[in-house]
Amino acid sequence: MFKGILVTKGDAGYRAALQEIDDAVLPDGEVKVSVEWSTLNYKDGLAITGKSPVVRRFPMVPGIDFSGAVVESTHAAWKPGDQVILNGWGVGETHCGGLAEVARVKGDWLVALPKELTARQSMEIGTAGYTAMLCVMALEKHGVKPMDGEVLVTGASGGVGSVAIALLSKLGYTVVASTGRTSEAPYLKGLGASAVIDRSELAGPGKPLAKERWAAVVDCVGSHTLANACAATRYGGAVAACGLAGGMDFPASVAPFILRGITLYGIDSVMAPIGLRQQAWTRLASDLDLSKLVAMTHAIGLSEVVQVATDLLAGKVRGRVVVDVHRA
């Protein structure tokens, strides 16, 4: 038996609660991990509250990422004592995840913890930071350079946005942060944003084309925000879309694509190939100012997870939330 958050669905309805979990609940996998740290992401909030059908199998331990030490392994790549990270692969959705003291997963899903990072730091970065790194890598692959102009980051106060700002600023880019909480301007500028704009400038219906401003965009919001970001992206620029906090729709036109030649990159962190994951984590260990994790992160115990998940969906949480799974 071990402690964790368990999501159940039955005659009593949908429920997520901290409880003792039998090891038999865990699905098959070659590697058993003693989880040390996990996180709360937007998808975790949806899974825990049931506001979206994220969980596909019941009962389910939510949590789309974790870090910890291998305790048992029949996989050739891993042995007891190895420090590992997991992000995505359907964990917390179809396969029991990281918001518990123990996880059992496929060995091919794991990445070695970079020696520059502690287990806690890896989850302070978490899937949000790993996704932010994938966005930055896509913009770099496109050829966007710091001298090309301003880079917009939407949903800037959230986890992906916060890490994206810190990464881009350290790499020399001029970052403009868009947020619905302009009171967080000091926090965002502390991460490296040169300017902060209210999300209302991007959140409403816009024109097919707007004045060219952004050399590139990291969008965590979707819907009208993404459409307006594309409309104002400069000729030949790039937009990396990785979120849907504002909605799954994309009420745009083809104008920015065929008249300005911009490129829209879809960023998927869940099923990204292992080589790309390893590259992203190597880059995070070297290109992220780890001292900025302190400002963007706060830690909670398992007993706080359900309430904080509700706050997260309500837009009341800034930055990253890490979960010490051995703290009540």
Characterization of this structure:
By secondary structure, this protein is of the alpha/beta class. Helix content is 29%, strand content 28%. The protein is globular and about 60 Å long. It starts with a strand and ends with a strand.
In which range does the helix fraction lie? 25-40%
Quick one: CATH class of the largest domain?
Answer: Alpha Beta
Oligomer state of the chains in this structure: single chain
Strand content: 25-35%
* Named CATH topology of the largest domain: Quinone Oxidoreductase, Chain A, domain 1
- Return the structural class: alpha/beta
Question: What's the structural domain tally?
Answer: 2
CATH architecture classification of the largest domain:
Alpha-Beta Complex
Number of helices: 10
**Major beta sheet summary:** 7 strands, mixed
CATH superfamily descriptor of the largest domain: Medium-chain alcohol dehydrogenases, catalytic domain
Radius of gyration: 20 Å
- Show unreliable segments: none
Number of strands: 15
Listing every helix as H and every strand as E from the N terminus to the C terminus, the arrangement reads EEEHEEEEHEHEHEHEHEHEHHEHE
Q: Could you tell me the mean pLDDT?
A: 96
> Could you give the distance between the termini?
15 Å
| Molecular shape | globular
